[in-house]
Amino acid sequence: MNFENLTLVQQNILFASIMADGEITKCYPGSRRKNNSYREHFGEHQRDYRKWKASFYEGQLYIRPNNNYLVSKSDPYFTQLYPHFYENSGNKKIPEKLLPYCSLPHFLTVLYLDDGSLCITKRINHHKKLIYLTPSIFLYLQNYPREQLLILKAHIYNRFGFDFNISRRKDGYGYILKLTTIKASLEFLAVVNEIASDCIQMDYKYNWEKRLQLEKEKIKNIYTSYQIQSSDSSRYKNYSENEIAELIHLKKNGKTDNQIAIELQRSYWSVVYKLRELRKDGFL
Predict the structure, then answer these.
(1) Does the pLDDT at position 237 exceed 70?
(2) What is the pLDDT of residues 55-74, one digit of tens each?
(3) Has this prediction a pTM greater than 0.85?
(4) Per residue, what are the HEC states of the chain?
(5) C-alpha count within 13 angstroms, C-beta hemisphere, residue 10
(6) Fold match between 111-235 and 239-284?
(7) Is domain 239-284 in CATH 3.30.1490, yes or no?
(8) Core-most of 130, 204, 259, 268, by most CB within 10 Å?
């Protein structure tokens, strides 16, 4: 098996990794190497996550013994990929011509687990002694200029239905991607959870219930007499019985997953996963 024969899942994980934490190594003048390779440095606390990534590649990507690098051997495939991901200056760029291949939720999942964060905003009503907790999703891709992030933002919206905002930041090129609506943030986490649920080490990034409970425990130590409420209304997480009945009806009448998503005002991937669950339970 060689890199030119990668499956679509493997391509999606690899392309997201190169755009985020990983890199295609350079070939310097006078080097004995004829081709580029892949390299990704990680902290010890994320070793299991890198093992999870490597598990998709049957030994093509592997963790070097005794150090914190996920790597590949030199391969013509990475030599071919290099100009798609790097400017002549050596700075990274969004691989616009390769984005049509970045079509699976594995792409979003790895991009987020590498460079993303689940942030929780507190809104305190001291009069009513209420604290509201709201999730937001950030993709810290400030190493790309704004015009490059606009390309990625458009692709994510057109393919996955998540409409990220461009947000300012002081470091790098000064911009990141931010998902702020509660509904979109929770549906995004549901997509990541579907792909990475067996990578428990990273569940602090995608397990909203767990993060919410940890945040509540911290707040209770400070605001002992306050009531804490999550802004994640049940309509954003679970399908009602009426929604499920309508979803089954629409699917049986030949509607596409995308048409159903529009009809129910859900994300495309939320509908895909719910249909998969209904088929497994014998309702379709």
Answers:
(1) no
(2) 999 899 999 988 999 999 99
(3) no
(4) CCHHHCCHHHHHHHHHHHHCCCEECCCCCCCCCCCCCEEEECCHHHHHHHHHHHCCCCCCCEECCCCCEEECCCCHHHHHHHHHHECCCCCECCCHHHHHHCCCHHHHHHHHHHHEEEEEEEEEECCCCEEEEEEEEEECCCCCCHHHHHHHHHHHHHHHCCCCEEEECCCCCCEEEEECCHHHHHHHHHHHHHHHCCCHHHHHHHCHHHHHHHHHHHHHCCCCCCEEEECCCHHHHCCCHHHHHHHHHHHHCCCCHHHHHHHHCCCHHHHHHHHHHHHHCCCC
(5) 15
(6) no
(7) no
(8) 268
H runs (alpha helix) in 58-145 = 76-85, 105-115
277 pLDDT more than 90: no
CA distance 100 to 78: 18
Determine the pLDDT at residue 2.
59
Tokens of 132: 């509201």
Assign a CATH topology to domain 111-235. Answer: Endonuclease I-creI (3.10.28)
Give the domain ranges of the chain.
Answer: 3-89, 111-235, 239-284
Secondary element (H or E) of residue 160: helix 146-160
For residue 232, what pLDDT is reported?
59
What tokens does 89 get? Answer: 């200056």
- Rank 83-97, 219-233, 254-268 by mean pLDDT and report only the highest: 83-97
